[in-house]
Amino acid sequence: MSDAKIDFNARLRDVPHKPGVYVMRDRLKKVIYVGKARDLRRRVGNYFMPSRKMTADPKTRALIDSIWDFEWHVVKSDAEAVLYEGRLIKEFRPKYNVSFRDDKRFLLVRVNLDEPYPRFGLTRLKKDDSARYFGPFAHSGALRTTLNAIRKRFGLRTCAPTVPDEGDYRHCSNDIIKNCSAPCIGRITQEDYRRRVEEACEFLEGQSLKMIEQVEAEMKAAAEKLDFEKAAQLRNLLDDLRTTRKPMTRFTRKTLPSAIDPQADLLALKDALGLERMPRIMECFDISNISATHIVASMVRFRAGVPDRANYRRFRIAGVKGQNDFASMAEVVRRRYSRILREAGAAAGEDADFNQENPYEAAQRVTNSQLSPSPLDLPKAAVSTLNSQPLAGLPDLIIVDGGKGQLSSACAELQRLGLHDVPIIGLAKEFEEIHRPGRALPLRLAADNGALKLLQRIRDEAHRFANGYHSLLLKRRISESRLDDIPGVSEARKKALLTKFGSLARLRRAKPEALAEIPGISPRLAAEILDAIRDR
């Protein structure tokens, strides 16, 4: 922690007049703002002009007062600055930033070359599959224009089936309007089509200038014929093509500036809690019950001090009526670790009765007749282990978002499952107090302690993940409420429709005959439902 601000005027002399991203930090070295600039020195210098505080809005004045230090990172172009700024904001979630704090990502181009007739599409999430991804791209408008031009120039298909002309497939009209080479009806061979796909990939990778040269030649020819409208369109297309294929640096977590040292924070947490071993794997639970509707929970996992997003889990609370954080926490802990026990038992070929039951029901059954007193009141000597060796899949530390109530509920479920030796704590947000089983007084750590910062990161990540799931369910409910406006659709029929089709989007794509199979829905009502939701 620094007790004095740096000399901003002296530091500004080292800032270059180049495009880049700047990062503001407070007295605890925490990132509080991230911004981009075409001219770093000019943009950053504006914050420290004497007149800035007089003319700035209250939020900016508060930011300036909080700045204790800053750093900058030079990039090659404005587009790179946009990508880098977005990546840093998502990583650090500074409190003075508004944009880029959500889960939305920049666009990528995806093509799966393992398909017989590959198609190019847009996505925001890169999956661990066999497909090739290009991007991310900062200018979505230029990218969409470029992708449409690529499809048209190379004759690439856009229709939905993976293999054209198989199954329930209707031939589209793209070949009639000269937008597709129509491999589905044999206009070209599969080998010729794949060659076109590879040429398009080379263009997106920046290896080929052939398409740009062709468009430039067409633009000059149109201008010579005095067809200035077409020449202007080709000029705009040329700008979009050059913008899209411009090489840019890919920013990964390893390239991000950070004052975080995960290993040091893990060691500090081990010492602060008196753990027997390093908490390499930690799981944190949070409940989101903004309203009595759609009460949900999240579980996030950190491995070696950083998020392990592939092992995040989310839950819909099913066995609790109303807003009850304690009962909700008990349910989600029970469901999570009863599943681990069941899978471990299945792998070992033991406890067949437990393995055959539903994990939720089995967890409620385990030792319900032998409940212990609250684990918060148990002495350490009374806690026995389930096995001599740690069970595979269990974390080194469990964290619940809340105080004694949530912690007591979670501990009771762990005892019912026989998981007495798994370390668990509760983190109460109001005073950032750490509650531990068997300890009457909470533990308070200094604000700049690495252990507390690590716990805050995992707690905030669980909170973000739970709120995101809650918002998603609310959006789905708003969408599904359209069924309430259709005459003849009762609450029971609405529930039956959503149970069968899962969502309004799938229902919209269904055929009337599929709706009419539901008891209580006639063919006429099925047609009226589809007409109503499709019109909207």
Overall description:
α10 (262-273) crosses α15 (450-480). This protein has 19 helices and 14 strands. Strands 7, 8, 9, 10, 11, 12, 13 and 14 form an 8-stranded mixed sheet that branches. It folds into 4 domains: 8-92, GIY-YIG endonuclease (3-Layer(aba) Sandwich); 108-245, no CATH class; 262-468, Nucleotidyltransferase, domain 5 (2-Layer Sandwich), CATH 3.30.420.340; 486-535, 5' to 3' exonuclease, C-terminal subdomain (DNA polymerase, domain 1, Orthogonal Bundle). 28% of the residues are buried. The radius of gyration is 29 Å and the shape is globular. It is an alpha+beta fold and 536 residues long. The chain starts with 7 loop residues before the first helix and ends with a helix. Mean pLDDT is 77; it is low at 351-389. β13 (433-435) and β14 form a beta hairpin.
Class per helix and strand makeup: alpha+beta
Largest sheet, if any? 8 strands, mixed
User: CATH fold name of the largest domain, please?
Assistant: Nucleotidyltransferase, domain 5
Low-confidence region ranges:
351-389
**Cα radius of gyration in angstroms:** 29 Å
List the defining traits of the structure above:
536 residues; alpha+beta; GIY-YIG endonuclease; Nucleotidyltransferase, domain 5; 4 domains; three-stranded antiparallel beta sheet; 14 strands; globular
Blueprint (SSEs and pairs):
Blueprint: H1 8-12, E1 20-25, E2 31-37, H2 40-47, H3 52-55, H4 58-66, E3 69-74, H5 78-92, E4 107-111, E5 120-123, E6 132-137, H6 140-154, H7 190-204, H8 210-224, H9 228-245, H10 262-273, E7 281-288, E8 296-303, E9 306-307, E10 313-316, H11 325-348, H12 352-356, H13 359-365, E11 397-401, H14 404-416, E12 424-428, E13 433-435, E14 443-444, H15 450-480, H16 491-501, H17 504-509, H18 512-516, H19 523-535
Parallel strand pairs: 7-11, 11-12
Antiparallel strand pairs: 1-2, 1-3, 4-5, 4-6, 7-8, 8-9, 8-10, 12-13, 13-14
Helix pairs in contact: 6-9, 8-9, 10-15, 11-13, 11-14
